[in-house]
Amino acid sequence: MVSEPNGAVEVRPSVVLIGPPGSGKTTVGRVLAKLLGVGLRDTDQGIEVQQGRSVSDIFLDEGEARFRELERAEVASSLSCDSGVLSLGGGAVMDPMTAAALAGHTVVFLDVGIADAATRVGFNQSRPLLAVNPRAQWTRMMEIRRPTYERLATFTVLTTGRTPQDIAAEIVQRIEQPGLEQPGLETDETGDTRE
Q: Of 41, 17, 25, 20, nearest to 164 (Cα)?
């Protein structure tokens, strides 16, 4: 929550998690919410509850455009009324209105490699955008989405080969100590990071 100059209290998420399928947004979100003592809101789950059916069914029955419309509304609502950890669906940030709405929020990009993503999600049929040739689709999706994830992120956390507890602990540490360098990266004299 943030106090406004007029004394009103603005409700806003503690942290917004973004990243591709398999990055651990929901799993890490649960652990992070517990560490922060707040709730977790997963926008995909919110849509499923509201619509009474799965994301896959919405994609199949009404198409991606309809799902993205529902997602845009769910994210907007969550950003304005939820004070916990908010986990966005992997493609939510590709909507310009959603991307703009993230300005001013603490946004964490959970970055992951394809090997860990494949292990975590199994590239099963519940992921409609990964239904046909999932490895190639995931790689193509990341080529398109990565610049947006990176542009919107307050900071990035690498999740490859790490436990949800370790990832969540790093996020808490970096929120509590802004400017903390990311493990595994060095900062050069210009302030740029390199591995």
A: 25
